[in-house]
Please model this.
Amino acid sequence: PLQCQGKGEIKVKYGWVFLLCFLLFSGCGENESAIKVDLTEREQVILKEEHGVITYAYLPQYSHTISHFRHHSLIQYLRKETGLNIKQIFPDTFDEHMKMVGQEKIDISYSNPFIYIKIAHRYGAKAFARIVEMTGKDKFRGQIICRADNSSIKNIYDCRNKRWIAVDSTSAGGYLYPLGHFIDHGITKKDFKEIAFAPGPGGKQEKVVLSVYAGKYDIGTIREGTLDVVSDKININKIKVVSMSNPYPGWVYAARKNLDKKIVEKLNQAFRKLDFNNKEHREILEAASFIKVINSVDKDFDPVRQLAERVGMSLEE
Model:
């Protein structure tokens, strides 16, 4: 039987060799040209989604590395406290983040308040919590920066006719708040030589600082606290803060439309348990760069809506 099995294997092997040779030599005749295959046209393979996952996304104001570092421990804590299968996902852009909320691919959105009022207006997202900043306040400001050695810019009025780089057209601290601050001082968008937005996906706050540092733009606008984030990349003493906007409501947690209310309540309970005086919790909170999470409702962000309307920024844009 073993001998017969061996012969069978040999026959099978020779059969495959013969078939392969036949296909190779008969595939292209003398007068036939080879078929060209365009490898640039690829169909995306969609894997079966894992059931029971609650997706959590941090608006990509900083790089994905920083987003992961800041919230990894927090998500592990939330998973343990709630029993929910929470996973952090990483949209590349502010616009992609918003669209994914509308497509119900993001269940829990952690975003700036300007993005929030947009996803609330467009997709029915609902605020349920907001953070208290490391400053101890539940509001934050936008900052206008320039190089410290730029002698032509001493105050906000010197920003006229300068090249301005902002974070994104939907950034709160990096665009909306400073724009309102400029308008309050009689400076409109027409008064700038150029207004640009940080290019590429993620890490846009850092890119604004680095662009000003490199002298590519005269001024930049960022959210309060960004200079600390880039202190390991540049000498931040070479950057000066020209002026700061009024404070507005801080970053917000929102649930997508139709998310089970029981899930939201579990998350709220877990957030409320976080105690900065608890050593383990303090490490989680310090990594996330806030000291507390408090309850919130949609009307808390009406000041941001009023500001957007005042500067002429539509929630549909």
